[in-house]
Write a structure and sequence with these properties.
The protein is mainly alpha-helical. Helices cover about 80% and strands about 0% of the residues. The chain contains 14 helices and no strands. The longest helix has about 35 residues. It is globular and about 70 Å long. The chain starts with 9 loop residues before the first helix and ends in a 5-residue tail after the last helix.
């Protein structure tokens, strides 16, 4: 006798299908927005401009370029989150289309998760585009800053040691930017989760302000925690728990390490391992934010 095939329960399958449908529609809406294309175009223009314009970093010209290119990409993702995720659920509430969604029936947590997933897909697409641009512009920047003799063999098929060494140098500088690009996506996912939850419970203006504020404060969490330790007991008991609820975005910033790194160095493998651990933290923090957001969204009355 043939063993029975395990089938997914119909309710579970319908929930997954609902989340997938919401996320796909959200992804399409986000990538079609003019602001999405405009932010990517501006970031690309800045990267291309920095590629051809000397930065006067002298011996550290490539290091300085990688630092500026990665920070430019990070800011572009933050702007995309603030201008898209912060209005994702708010637009549905204002236009009353959320009533049609919830009547299908679609649970409120499915709406939040679907909106978040669609926005993260759009951020992943934007990050992939920016990562490719950073990779290519870094590759060209190394070429532009090389001596004429090195440039001559940059794209040749010669197997001589100088040619292979310079080709490896271009590749390793460009490839070393990839871990930082993954970290940029992680930060975007955390900010997107917060923005989606805020847009479901408050106005889109507040969601935009808090998103930018969280990005700034999240990079100062460790500094604030150290400052509170030297304050009064009342301040410590009040601020410390709140500080631990904030995302430690400073731990996501590996631009300085990446800028000075090469892809063939032993430390580069450690950066990828660290990126994996931060990914686990990102998943846990996003799950916590969406859980709290679902609780708050369920208590909100929708007219």
């Amino acid at each position: 006798r043939r063993p029975r095939r395990r089938t997914v329960p119909r309710d579970r399958r319908s929930r997954v299908q609902s989340i997938a449908a919401i996320s796909i529609n959200t992804f399409r809406e986000v990538v079609r927005q003019p602001v999405f294309i405009l932010v990517l175009a501006l970031a690309a223009a800045v990267l291309l401009l920095m590629m051809v314009v000397p930065l006067f970093g002298f011996a550290d010209e490539v290091v300085l370029f990688k630092d500026l290119a990665l920070h430019t990409s990070a800011l572009a993702i933050v702007f995309l989150v603030a201008l898209t995720a912060a209005s994702s659920v708010a637009e549905e509430l204002e236009s009353k289309t959320v009533l049609a969604l919830l009547a299908k029936p679609v649970a409120r947590w499915q709406l939040l998760v679907g909106k978040f997933a669609g926005i993260v897909l759009a951020l992943a697409a934007a990050t992939a585009v920016l990562a490719l641009l950073v990779f290519l512009t870094t590759y060209v920047k190394v070429y532009n800053g090389a001596m004429p003799a090195e440039r001559h063999g940059a794209f040749s098929m010669s197997q001589s040691a100088p040619v292979l060494e310079f080709q490896a140098k271009m590749w390793n500088h460009a490839a070393s930017t990839l871990p930082a690009c993954v970290m940029i996506l992680y930060r975007g996912a955390i900010l997107a989760a917060v923005a989606v939850v805020l847009s479901a419970g408050f106005s889109r203006v507040l969601a935009v302000i808090v998103t930018f504020g969280l990005y700034l404060v999240g990079h100062l969490t460790e500094f604030l925690t150290d400052a509170v330790r030297h304050s009064t007991a009342l301040v410590r008991d009040t601020v410390t728990p709140a500080a631990h609820l904030l995302p430690f975005l400073q731990n996501f910033d590996i631009v300085n390490q990446v800028s000075a790194a090469m892809a063939d160095e032993p430390a580069f493998e450690g950066l990828w391992a660290y990126t994996g651990w931060v990914g686990l933290y990102t998943v846990g923090y996003v799950a916590f934010v969406l859980l709290v957001g679902t609780f708050l969204f369920n208590r909100r009355e929708i007219d």
